[in-house]
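Exam review. A common question shows you a sequence with its structure tokens and asks you to describe the fold in words. Practice with the pair below. Do the first one on your own.
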Amino acid sequence: MKRYLLLLLLATGVHAQSSNEFAALVERVQKSPGAVSADEVGKLLQLSKELNRPYTAAIAVKAYFSQNLNASPALLKAAAENAALAGDFRTAASRYKQYLRAVPDSEVAAQLYQLQLDFLGATDDAYRFMDEFGDSLR
């Protein structure tokens, strides 16, 4: 029984530390989105996934992308996944499109099409994107 309590206390401490780091990153990104590094935003997105707090991260990440237009493909993909988890399907679709223009990836294209067709009802947009970039996504 003592082992379980010790493990529970250790896990709670790690969770609290991650939660504090997450809150600090959210605050930093929201206060000065132009001064934050891409690595910090990547860490924010990683922590949001671990802590199951995609909505909070999505708000901060939107501020970052409003100031930083040339993000890496990896950051675009992570931001798209986070936006989808937060239920912001339009932003997720936009980030997936940006990612796919840089890195053709058929699995990510499938996720984009699913968002467009199932959640946004954007059939015209899905077919237009497929027509324009479909050959590179096979």
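Now try the second one, then compare your answer with the model answer below.
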Amino acid sequence: MGRQFIGIGDCHLDSTLSKYIPNINRIICEEIDVAIEWGIARGIKSVILYGDIGNKPQLTDDAHKRLLSLFYKYADIRFIVVKGNHDTKSDEENGLRVLHHLHLLGGLQNVKFVLDKPELLFKNRFGVHRKVDPGVT
């Protein structure tokens, strides 16, 4: 059997829905937790967070704390976190920079970050297909 992983996309922590749904970050992270537990029960040990982790390029303290709690709770799971367009203010500024810096300092060893700008491969009637440089850190 090939490599298996759980794919979770468009979490949008700090969503504008917080105006209507109290504790939206808690609810989102609980759903991520459910997906990870489902994978663990099936022997899956990798999770890819596909991008748009946050709804804007700066995560709140609450969002950071909740992500850190997930990463440390599942220390045996390998996470790959891909930067999305909502996570990005510029090539240098993005909502994942603090977590990435913590990783570079030796923390979050179970988390890898893909922060490179995607390269357009081709566009067809189904949408845009992009390639991300394999520079995973």
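Model answer, second protein: DSSP finds three helices and six strands in the chain. The CA atoms of residues 103 and 109 lie 6 Å apart. Full marks require stating both points clearly.
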